[in-house]
Specification:
The protein is 42% helix and 16% strand. The chain is an alpha/beta fold and 367 residues long. It binds pyridoxal-5'-phosphate. Pyridoxal-5'-phosphate (PLP) binds next to helix 3.
């Protein structure tokens, strides 16, 4: 990545390597021809590697929200009883989407900065033995929290015969989330976060159990799983794919494979450790509860009486670095730094140096 460019430290989209951007120049081929079939096959294989799954993965020409919509509308129906949690913008959206298909939703409502625990799940499960599905956001990007009890929660959910849906839009490819070993039936992610590809693609892995469940669900339209499965046989997508993004994706996934998943995960961890250590050293309060802290989105409280937008603006104007404000009621109260994709120590160092100067400067700005 050229350093004359703006450094994108957002919780998505993230920085994209030059070779990945370059790959998009190869853009127009026949999406019903042999070259596309090869591209499609390679992408399936590379995605399986990153997802750690043997399952089919639908590649959607849509943003991550399309992935969530695909997951909910293909696998949840009116007579389902779904357990979910809310603790921020994206878990709220998932909750609303599940409600919109008419299912009964059992919501574990947590405070912003907190997350769903194994005990929360077990308490709710006790009263809802007839629940058919668990649908949750693993990494709540709006508050910088993760469901670290995921493995235990999924184990019980699968033992109870529930279908499991996980939104890992801002974590898959940066955090070790082995789809098959964890028992995730429907696993959602997007191109523009840890996969370090430009925005515009969403991915959903689908287990055999989920495919079976979908047989009884009619979901005619752009996100109909049955069409994606039918065209998958031909190594194609049902509708015209966003070709430039497919080329970019192949390039970014090749880079991940070349580095090796374990190395990629360790790099993300080292970088988020650096960000959390910086915050501790500079006495910047971390927003989430300690046990809930995300490895890919670091959310810090804005110093008393200061506005997140002032910090974000100084970072942009004076340091050419993009970081994000909070969401909704956290808008001016939190700053969020993304730690995803081609993140490395040098980039984090540059960001923390700029943030240190910015935090000093902000003291003299009247609140
Ligand atoms: C956890 C989570 N889910 C879903 C989405 C929606 O993705 P998109 O904005 O690409 O539609 C996001 C986006 O940031 C996200 O962080």
């Amino acid at each position: 990545m050229g350093y004359n460019k703006t450094l994108i430290m957002l919780p998505g989209p993230t920085n994209v390597a030059d070779e990945v951007l370059e790959a998009m120049k190869e853009s127009v081929i026949n999406h019903r021809g042999e070259d596309f079939h090869k591209l499609y096959n390679e992408i399936q294989d590379l995605l399986k590697y990153v997802y750690q799954t043997e399952n089919f993965i639908a590649t959607l020409s849509s943003s991550g929200t399309g992935g969530v919509e695909f997951a909910v509308t293909n696998f949840i129906r009116k007579n389902d009883k779904v357990i979910t949690y809310t603790a921020g913008e994206f878990s709220e959206r998932m909750y609303e989407k599940i409600k919109s298909v008419g299912a009964e939703v059992i919501r574990i409502k947590k405070d912003l900065g907190d997350t769903m625990s194994f005990d929360d799940f077990m308490n709710v499960l006790d009263d809802n033995r007839d629940a058919t599905c668990l649908a949750i956001v693993f990494n709540e990007t709006s508050t910088g929290t993760s469901v670290w009890d995921l493995e235990k929660i999924l184990k019980v959910a699968k033992e109870k015969g529930m279908l499991t849906i996980v939104d890992s839009v801002s974590a898959l490819g940066g955090v070790d989330l082995p789809t098959d070993r964890l028992g995730i039936d429907v696993h959602i992610t997007g191109s523009q976060k840890c996969l370090a590809c430009p925005p515009g693609l969403a991915f959903v892995s689908v287990s055999k159990e989920a495919i079976k469940k979908n047989e009884g669900i009619s979901n005619y339209g752009y996100f109909d799983l049955k069409s994606y499965l039918k065209f998958h046989e031909k190594k194609e997508t049902p509708y015209t794919p966003a070709l430039p993004l497919f080329f970019a994706l192949r390039a970014s996934l090749r880079k991940i494979k070349e580095e090796g998943l374990d190395n990629v995960f360790q790099r993300h961890k080292r970088c988020s450790d650096m960000l959390y250590s910086f915050a501790a050293k500079e006495k910047l309060e971390i927003f989430p509860k300690e046990y809930a802290r995300s490895l890919t989105v670091v959310a810090m409280k804005t110093p008393q009486d200061k506005k997140a937008s002032d910090i974000v603006n100084i970072m942009r104007r004076e340091h050419n670095i993009e970081i994000a404000k909070g969401f909704g009621e956290l808008n001016e109260k939190v700053i969020r730094v993304g730690c995803m994709g081609i993140i490395n120590e040098k980039i984090v160092e540059k960001t923390t140096q700029a943030l240190k100067i910015t935090m000093e400067k902000i003291k003299s700005i009247p609140s």
